[in-house]
Specification:
The chain is an alpha+beta fold and 640 residues long. It is 34% helix and 27% strand. Strands 15, 20, 21, 22, 23, 24, 25, 26 and 29 form a nine-stranded mixed sheet that branches. A five-stranded mixed sheet has the order 31-30-32-33-34, sandwiched between helices. The structure holds one RNA strand of 76 nucleotides.
RNA sequence: GCUGACGUAGCUCAGUCGGUAGAGCACCUGCAUGGUAAGCAGGAGGUCCCCGGUUCGAUCCCGGGCGUCAGCUCCA
């Protein structure tokens, strides 16, 4: 038979051949599994009709197959060491795998080493994997006999007509739909990383299992690189760098609320100014609305019914109030203050003020998950035929901002959740409008069914940072509900009352989260335009203190954030301090520079830019700040 | 919110098998006036998270609370 292989052309195979024979014929040692249509198949499966895609570890699907088998190796090792342990589920994850297990006695981190050694043993034994299709009755009987209660629950939850399969390796058999590697020996490098609590099927009423995490790679080198990246992520952790760089802090008596220090507030204000500079030309008007409203407003908006658990509620003079978690209801009241004409649409409000959400205590995480935040929040009231224009402009804002930080973005289209309000027909209309814009822009996107807000479908944006980590940041949400709930109208061309549509968007998202992400993305070494201190002037000795102060004052007059470090320490010590503070430029002033009216400029990282005249230095700094240059670097071109 | 671990100087962390504690860095002072990532010397700094219990005595053991961390769930 003749099989079409993606990227390899047609291959002739004997009848009854398996995919492993195909891979062997092509002499490709690193193929782990194959994809035929939307199915992923093991190499031991007989060849079927249809074009074949070869999956290696470089392919996300191949990686999942590899680590799924690693999860089985973990389960096998655990059952050898703890025969009484009960297995739940063991899937691959983005960068590893886990297995949820109920141990008779909880295990601790110290037990991981022992389990890891047994896993190495299972790998060394190089068991071939086998797949069995079994009937529902057989499955129930098998796992009854094996005394695996969670597996029985899983089988019972399967649809009556589901194909039930098990996979075996050596003495170990697991309920699993696969697919898997063909041999355990392919897992050349693995490590268990942690153990944590997890509920069976995420049900916090059920038993708490222990989730054992690990990761696996085809080579030791890849495993080591993985852990290097984890170390690098720790080094960049904004919770460490933030206080270290004097940007922000937290206090036990205000969990989830940041103290913004002077240097951190510079980041905040610079980003808000950047946002404003992009949005103001599109007609967004910055406003400020109340932050505490009577419950009546939250009932109108629907927050009382759908968001109450996430709000701080309070009482004063026998009246119930709620602190705002979002700006939209306030902006609706603003819209309603006058009779609006179609000529005013799209009417756009922007607000950067504080929002408060009562996030559950266990979810708080530095700046990335807070209770007190500021968003680059906007609400646009528009006529239905303007949806495309407004959403397209918002997509342009996303591009402008994330390109500035060289962060690629991924678009998620989230559709109606179970807990939603409004008619199905309106939801259909909103969802198809968003999809139409995405398709018109020809952008790739993924659909997340059921992930929309309770008032409308949305586009969520995931940014990738310098370490390849992904962060949920921007959101653009379409809303047909709030205008109805607030009974909003505009007068159209024919003089008739019409209901406007709303678009909510936050492009940086929460400034708190965004700054947290940027701290990690840049490892605290911000580009010049964002850096809280842009230049540190460093006199060699007391004789140059005055000249240093004068240079700093001159730079400050040009809008450059410059300061003098005249501490009683040697130059080397102060250079090191500037480097640790991640200051983009150090301007050293000694006797030579005083006489020549120059400064010797050192770039963050160590490059010596030589002596620059004061005016030339200031001009270059100003230009690069205005251009939001992603540097440091390039302040002086080699050609200069 | 749930499960588990943790909470000692500004930071990173030792330590006390129950007898009120220590290092490095940072900070302050003095000497040294310095040339691109750590000069030398000295000093100050602690409610050992909070509240209760056990004990002659608790930072240490027990209980509760708060916070942090890792997960679960949720999300900007």
């Amino acid at each position: 038979m003749r099989i079409e292989v993606l990227g390899k052309g047609a291959v002739d195979l004997a009848d009854g051949a398996r995919y492993g024979d195909l891979v062997e014929k092509l002499a490709l040692a690193d193929v782990l599994a194959v994809a035929v249509g939307d199915r992923i198949l093991e190499l031991f499966r007989p060849v079927e009709a249809g074009q074949v895609r070869l999956l290696t570890f470089a392919d996300p699907d191949g990686r999942r197959v590899f680590r799924h088998t690693a999860a089985h190796v973990l389960a096998q090792a655990v059952k050898r060491l703890y025969p009484e342990a009960k297995l739940a589920i063991g899937p691959p994850t983005e960068d590893g795998f886990f297995y949820d297990i109920l141990f008779a006695d909880p295990i601790g981190p110290a037990d991981l080493a022992r389990i890891g050694e047994e896993m190495e043993q299972v790998v060394a034994e190089d068991h071939p994997l086998q797949r069995q299709e079994i009937s529902r009755e057989e499955a129930l009987a098998d796992f009854q006999r094996a005394d695996e209660p969670f597996k029985l629950q899983l089988i019972e939850a399967l649809p009556q007509d589901a194909l039930i399969t098990t996979y075996s390796q050596g003495e170990f058999t697991d309920l699993c739909r696969g697919p898997h590697l063909v041999r355990t020996g392919l897992i050349k490098a693995l490590r268990l990383t942690s153990v944590a609590g997890a509920y069976f099927r995420g049900n916090d009423q059920g038993p708490m299992l222990q989730r054992v995490y690990g990761t696996a790679f085809p080579t030791v080198e890849e495993l080591e690189r993985h852990f290097f990246l984890i170390e690098e992520a720790k080094r960049r952790d904004h919770r460490r760098l933030g206080p270290e760089l004097d940007l922000f802090s937290f206090h036990d008596v205000a969990p989830g609320f940041a103290f913004w220090h002077a240097k951190g507030l510079i980041l905040y204000e610079t980003l808000v100014a950047f946002s404003h500079s992009l949005q103001q030309p599109l007609g967004y008007q910055e406003v400020s609305t109340p932050w505490i409203f009577k419950t009546e407003l939250w009932e109108t908006s629907g927050h009382a019914a759908h968001f109450k658990d996430n709000m701080f509620l309070m009482e004063a003079e026998d009246e119930a109030f709620g602190v705002k978690p979002m700006n939209c209801p306030g902006h609706c009241l603003l819209f309603k203050e006058a009779t609006r004409s179609y000529r005013e649409l799209p009417l756009r409000y922007a607000e950067y003020g504080p929002l408060t959400r009562r996030e559950r205590s266990g979810t708080l995480h530095g700046l990335l998950r807070v209770r007190g935040m500021h968003q680059d929040d906007t609400h646009t009231f528009l006529a239905p035929e303007q949806i495309e224009q407004v959403v397209t402009e918002a997509l342009g804002l996303v591009d402008a901002i994330y390109q500035t930080f060289a962060m690629p973005i991924e678009i998620h289209f989230s559709t109606r959740p179970e807990d939603h309000m409004g008619e199905e027909a309106l939801w259909d209309r909103a969802e198809s409008a968003l999809e139409a814009v995405l398709q018109a822009g020809g952008r790739p996107y993924v659909t997340d069914p059921g992930e929309g807000a309770f008032y409308g479908p949305k586009l969520d944006f995931v940014a990738t940072d310098a370490l390849g980590r992904r962060w949920q940041v921007a959101t653009i949400q379409l809303d047909f509900q709030l205008p109805i709930r607030f009974d909003l109208h505009y007068i159209d061309r024919e003089g008739k009352e019409k209901t406007p549509v709303m678009v909510h968007h936050a492009i940086m998202g929460s400034l708190e989260r965004f700054i947290g992400v940027l701290v990690e993305h840049f490892a605290g070494a911000f580009p010049l335009w964002l850096a809280p201190i842009q230049v540190r002037v460093l006199p060699i000795s007391e004789k140059e203190h005055q000249a240093a102060k004068e240079l700093a004052a001159t730079l400050r007059l040009d809008g450059v954030r410059a300061e003098v470090d005249d501490r009683n320490e040697k130059v080397g010590w102060r250079i090191r301090a500037a480097e640790q503070d991640k200051v983009p430029y150090v301007a050293v002033i000694g006797q030579r520079e005083v006489e020549a009216k120059t400064a010797s400029v050192r770039e963050r990282g160590g490059r010596d830019l030589g002596a620059l005249g004061h005016e030339a230095f200031a001009r270059k700094l100003k230009d690069h700040i205005a251009a939001r240059w992603p540097g440091p670097g390039h302040l002086v071109d080699p050609a200069d």
